[in-house]
Each structure stands twice: as C-alpha cells, then as structure tokens.
Amino acid sequence: MPGHGLPRLQLMWMPLVLRCMRYILSWHIHEAELHARSPAWREEAAAFLARVEDELFVSSELDWVEVLDPESHAIVGPGGEIRQGFYNQHGKPSARVWAIRVASRERAVEIAATFAGQLDTWIEVRESLLGNQRP
C-alpha cells in the first residue's frame, strides 16, 4: 500500500495478529505437593511440559513461559512489610505461567485442558485485555 510506510510482510501479518487473543495460563501448586509426587512423575511432567511448550512455540501459540521460584523463596512486601510466603495465602501459589496467543477462548481452554490433564491439576485461564498491554 503506497504511503503507509509499512513493509508488505507487516501488512500481510496484521490481520492475523489482530485476530489473535492473548491469554495467561497459570499452574498453581504448593511446593510440598510437588515434593510429594514421585520422582518418576516429576520426570514425566518435565518431559511433557518441554514437549508441549515446544509444540506451542513452533505453532506460534506460545509467547513465553516462566517457571517461578517455590513459595518458600517468595517474599511479599505490601506497604513496606516483608514476610515469607506468597500473596494468596489461602490458595496455592503460581508455579508456572504461560502467555499464549490463540484464535479463540476455546483454543486457550483446549491448551489449558492438555496441561491440566497431564499435570492432574487445575489451570487458570485469564484473557489479557488488549487495550491494557504495554511494551
């Protein structure tokens, strides 16, 4: 398109990017629960996570993934107070967070169900609000 100043490749990708929805998936688990699982389970889970995360990355559905410190290493400091633990004391702390970019909420739920089924747990699915994203 003359006058727009965008390379042709960028223009081709714009509709795809605008169609995609961003979600954050969170796995919440206590450190003690992970330690209570067998070494074989932990090894199988690590291999599963590596494989599925690679597949999502190759399909351009995974933006990033973070593995968080166990809650025994977390420090929360609201109002200047410093304490051991995690923010949601009555729930479970986040252990792993995935940022995904998919065509629909149904696809986000499908991905979360894959993680939940293999990890035998609940996965939180939250949409990232487009108007509030910043670089």
Overall description:
The structure is a single chain. By secondary structure, the protein is an alpha+beta fold. It has one domain (18-129): Dimeric alpha+beta barrel (Alpha-Beta Plaits, 2-Layer Sandwich), CATH 3.30.70.1060. Helices cover 39% and strands 24% of the residues. It contains four helices and six strands. The protein has helices spanning 8-19, 31-36, 39-58, 105-119; strands at residues 21-28, 62-67, 75-76, 83-84, 94-102, 123-127. The strands form two sheets. It has a four-stranded antiparallel β-sheet. A two-stranded antiparallel sheet has the order 3-4. A hairpin with a 6-residue loop joins strand 3 (75-76) and strand 4 (83-84).
Task: List strands and helices in order, with pairings.
Elements: H1 8-19, E1 21-28, H2 31-36, H3 39-58, E2 62-67, E3 75-76, E4 83-84, E5 94-102, H4 105-119, E6 123-127
Antiparallel strand pairs: 1-5, 1-6, 2-5, 3-4
Task: List key phrases describing it.
135 residues; alpha+beta; four-stranded antiparallel sheet; 4 helices; 24% strand
